[in-house]
Amino acid sequence: MSMLHRLRRSGWGWTLLAAVLVLVYLFPVYWMAATSLKTNTGIYASPPQIFPWPPMFSSYYDAVINNPLTLRSIFNSAVVGIGTMLLTLLLAAPAAYALARLELRIGPLLLLLLLITQLLPAIVIATPLFVAFSRIQLLNSYPALILADTTFSLPFAVIVLRPFFLTVPRELEAAAKIDGCNQFDAFWRVILPLVRPGLITVAVFAFLMGWGEFLFAMTLTTNEAVQPATAALNKFIGQYGTEWNKLMAVATTIALPIIVLFASLQRYIVSGLTAGSVKE
Amino acid sequence: MAQTQVSAGQQPHTRGRKLSTRYRSLSRYWFVAPALAFISLTMIYPIVSNLRMSVYDVNVSTFLSDSAPFVGLGNYIRVLTDPAFQRAFSHSIVFTVGSLFFQFVIGFALALLFNRRFPGNGLLRALLLLGWMLPTVVSGSIFRWMFDGSIGIINYAMQSLGLLDSPRFWLTDPNTALIGTIIANIWVGIPFNMILLLPGLQSISLSLYEAASIDGASGRQSFRHVTLPLMRPVILSVLLLGIIYTFKVFDIIYVMTGGGPVDATTTLPLYVYQLAFSFFRFGDGSAAAILLLLVLSVVAVIYLRLSQREEAES
Q1: Mutating which of B4, B25, B42 best tests the A interface, going by the most A Cβ atoms within 10 A?
Q2: Helices (H), ranges, B115-176
Q3: What pLDDT does residue B14 have?
Q4: Measured between CB atoms, does B174 come within 8 Å of chain A?
Q5: Do A123 and B250 touch (CB under 8 A)?
Q6: Main-chain phi, psi angles of B56, to 5 degrees
Q7: CA–CA separation, B280 vs B276, rounded Å?
Q8: Interchain proximity B134–A117, CB inside 8 Å
Q9: What is the ipTM of this complex?
Q10: Residue A195 burial (CB < 10 Å; 0-12/13-18/19+)?
Q11: The model's pTM
Q12: How far is CA A177 from CA A154, A173, B157, B203, in A?
């Protein structure tokens, strides 16, 4: 009893509780990785192998490394993710700055439009974009996916970035103007470098949104040459049927960049999630 | 752009600085013009286009040529009287209420836990967010695998614990498929609810709890009389946002069941998808999309009003 009491007082008791809950919560992620390291017979073992030892990488060879379609789809996702990231930064940074600092009459309207966009179901956008892109022959192209994916990363980015611009001291802008900078120079050379943490947060999120997007990937592309990995994974479900180890190998590969980015840029991601999931 | 020029021109300016002021006030609009143009293209255009297509008989033979005949409210009537639409609507309600209730309760409990100070709090909280960050296609396929009827881990665990006599084919049984997708969606939504509720809890001053405990309030009493009343606006906006975000869920359901078996897990977004992309009935699909938007806009208006009021107060 006294040890329990001591645990509670030091706070480590709460750590223990939270750690157990987090482990339970993350079990599905672990199970994905564990399954991907099993053989075709390993996944049928009963009782199930909770720790696949020794780990077997055969699913990765079969479904990822030696499968050109998977590799191509991962490359496509990277292109779409990076494209979404660049377009989002290009559109969101000036807009967020203007909403924070330049008192524009259309400011509140733009903010409202962005909030509404965030609430729209993707399918409502997918059908008209499919029709419009078929008419201008933009289906099955990277720009089609980048444009569509930025629809949802842009509102998020503006809402995350705006508070960052609010913290920039006004005197700095004034000083830059006295030094002969025009408004764009001041923005580009003086203000943008000051909101770097915000830009990193937004860049990471926009990349991840493009990387993980599914509905546009499925509706706007049919050609394997441009189809992203999320759509490819969905196809594999039909194709690999019950070869769950291979399916989980592809899933783990898609999840890996997120886990890596998460581990290395945790601080930016957590602050971004809190700020941008809704409003400020 | 017409609007921007008018409002820039309306600004009063003195004679000497006339040109430069006008130039400056105009140039400021270049900061928002690209974003505004983009939003018009990817958000306003699709809504207008849906509205237009919803009153024309746009199908696979007419969608490219723009020659579809006008049918008035014909598409809407066809969709509204379609039993599949009515079923999709009720699936959406069940899915949303079921997901949101558990996401919110579990998310709130976790927020209360992480509102305490303890070593490792930040790291553990961040790890929890991983579930929300995973692409939904990935989480969907993980749950599809865990719910597998023959070798899934959920059947194994439940049978070992004596909760199930024989394996259950969760996702191919019309009675349990929707529950399976709801459980997966709860998993995805827990961190989201937690992370939105936590700042609200953190903003409650500790002195209020101290005062309550001096007055002899138990932990439960101070939760009821201090935490809940002060959290009301946050709770309300999390729930409203949760309704909208859950109502529009597509990926997880599509990956886990494709809307089946038959249409047991077809919610409104999947119904719209099927009309447009399986049957190429774009006119009907657009009508259904507009109906979906109407439902969501009721919630959205309340939510936007609420958040604007909060912004005005802060």
Answers
A1: B42
A2: 121-133, 136-146, 153-160
A3: 44
A4: no
A5: yes
A6: -120, 155
A7: 5
A8: no
A9: 0.91
A10: buried
A11: 0.90
A12: 29, 6, 67, 39
